[in-house]
Amino acid sequence: MKNIMLAAVALLTLTLNGCGGAGGSQGTANYTVNFGAGAHGSLTGPTSQGITQGASTSTVSALPAANYHFVNWTGDNGFATSTMNPLTVTNVTASQNITANFAINPSIAVLKLSSAGSLPSGSYLSGLSIKVQFPPGVTVSTDANNVVSAGVVTPSGVAVASTVTPAFFTPATATTPSTLEFVVVSSSAGGFGVGEFATINCVIASGSFPMSGDFITPATDFKPANLLLQPITGLTASLTSTIN
Length: 244
Prior knowledge:
Layout: H1 2-26, E1 31-37, E2 41-44, E3 48-51, E4 61-64, E5 68-75, E6 96-104, E7 108-116, E8 125-134, E9 138-139, E10 153-155, E11 163-164, E12 168-170, E13 178-185, E14 196-204, E15 223-226, E16 236-243
Parallel strand pairs: 1-6
Antiparallel strand pairs: 1-3, 2-4, 5-6, 7-14, 7-16, 8-13, 8-15, 9-14, 10-14, 11-13, 12-13
């Protein structure tokens, strides 16, 4: 009986040790996920992590330096670019190197407005009126009556020799975006053609990060006129922006 009991204990010990060994092999790291910070930022959290197949990393946070902001995470071996911050990578199936990217906080936006389309043969523009919608956090310098300051809107391109009537800025409300409207008038009896016609210098509030596509020129608010001051159809307005 004593021998039987000793054999049973030995078998149980062997079985338990075997189970423990299996658990240890399952806990062995299969992959390494390395986190790094690009220029003008730093990280908090474990930056080099051993991860088992299908498991998740510990959370890592990206911290921008003063006057910079976090943009996104980029990486290799199947990592999908992400704007989540903090970041936890789930279902790890490969070793990866992941970088936090940062950019300087923008403070100004320069808009270039242009017309496009075809004028009737021999026709030119005597001028045009236009309205531009701004995204949140973008304004222009004005006086107390929201009349735009000198130098904010200037004629350029094909209309460089023209003048701009006092532009007017309408601040945003809870339901409508802010807008800027003005008129470009040719200083020449011969008018001007199709192409770039104005430049706008905008101010970006701290903490705002507008994109080029956030500025809009509604088609119904673009009104070009010929030398006889008659409306011209078939032209469209567009803009490009440089954000710094």
